[in-house]
Amino acid sequence: MPGTVNELERNAALQKAAEILKSADNILILTHKSPDGDTIGSAFGLCRALLKLGKKAKVICNDEFPKKFSYIFEGLESFDFEPGLIVASDVASTELMGEQLAPFSDKVGLCIDHHPSNGKYAAFTVLDPTAAATCEIMADIIPLLEVEYDKDIANCIYTGLATDTGCFRYSNTTSKTLRTAAAMVDYGADIATINKKLFETTSRARLELERMVLDTIEYYFDGRAAVITITNEMEEKTGVSDSDTDGLPSLPARIEGVEAGITLKEKKDGSYKISLRTGRTLNASKICATLGGGGHAAAAGCRVEGTLEEAKKAILDAVGEELAKIEGEGTT
C-alpha cells in the first residue's frame, strides 16, 4: 500500500486486518518508545474495541505512558496471558519498539501504520501513508470488527488525530481527517477537555525548558533553517519529564522564513535525536533518510552519534544539499 491511495487495495487490507483480529484472542498490542498521542490513541482504541468483543487484550510500551494521556487508559482491566496475536500500532520499525519489546520484534502478526518509512516487518501490514495518523486508519478498522463506538473509543481516536496534526493545523490534515474527527465528536469524544489538556496546559518545568531552549536558536542558509538544542543539563535543571518535551520541535518551524526547523535533543547515551519539520518545499523524510531515519514529508527524525557540533553539521549538510537542489531547479 505505500505510496498509493487505491481504495480497493486499502479496503481489502482493512478487511483482512479485521479478520485477523476477529479470529484471534489474547491480543498483545505494541506501541513505540517515547509514546505520543497517536500510538497511544490507536493502540488503546483498538484494545477497547477488542475488549467489547469479549476478547482479552492489553497494550504495552517500552516507556511509561505520559500522565496527560491517563484518560485514555484509566479503568482498563489488566490481563496476563500468552499472546495469541501480536499487533504493532503506529510502529514504523522494530528499532522503535525499544529494548523491552525487542523480544516481540520478529513475532508481530499485524502492523497498522501510516509512516511511509514502515519496514514491513510484520506478517501482515496495513499501511496508508496518506492518513494523517494511524488513528485515522484504526477508525476504519473498528467498525469492521462489528463494534459500536462509545465515548472511550472516540476519545482514543480523536487524541491521535489531534496530536499528529497539531490540532488540525499541519499540512497532513485532509478532509477525511476532519470527517473522522467529526465522527468522533458525534460518538461522544470530549474534545474540549482533550484539547485543553493536550494543547493549552503547560507545566512550569516545561515553560522553563522552553525559555532555555529558545535561547539556543541559531539560523543558517540566510534564515531558511533554524536550529534549537535540548541538552541533558537543561532537562536536569528544569526537572521535566520526557513527555514535557513534546511539541518543542515545532518551535523553530514557526519562525517566519524558516523552511527547515531542526531540533537537536541530547540522549542519555550521548547521541542526538534530530527532529526535522519542513514546509512544502522540502521533504523531511527524504532528508532524514540520508542519516538513517525517516518519517513524513513535513515531519521526520533520525539519530546521530557524536558531539553536538557533529550532529548539527550532519543534519545541516543534508538540509543544505536539498536547498541547493531546489535553487538549482529554480534556475534551469
Give an overview of the whole structure.
This protein has two domains: 7-199, inorganic pyrophosphatase (n-terminal core), CATH 3.90.1640.10; 205-330, Diaminopimelate Epimerase, Chain A, domain 1, CATH 3.10.310.30. 39% of the residues lie in helices and 16% in strands. The protein has helices at residues 7-22, 37-52, 70-73, 134-144, 151-164, 175-186, 191-199, 204-214, 232-238, 284-289, 308-330; strands at 27-30, 57-60, 85-89, 110-113, 124-127, 218-220, 225-230, 260-266, 272-278, 294-295, 299-304. It has a six-stranded mixed β-sheet, sandwiched between helices. Strands 2-1-3-4-5 form a five-stranded parallel β-sheet, covered by helices on one side. Helix 2 packs antiparallel against helix 5. The longest helix has 23 residues, at 308-330. The mean pLDDT is 94. This is Phosphoesterase RecJ domain-containing protein. InterPro entries: DDH_dom, DHH_sf, DHHA1_dom, Oligoribo/pAp-PDE_c-di-AMP_PDE. Residues 237-324 form the DHHA1 domain. One of its GO terms (molecular function) is nucleic acid binding.
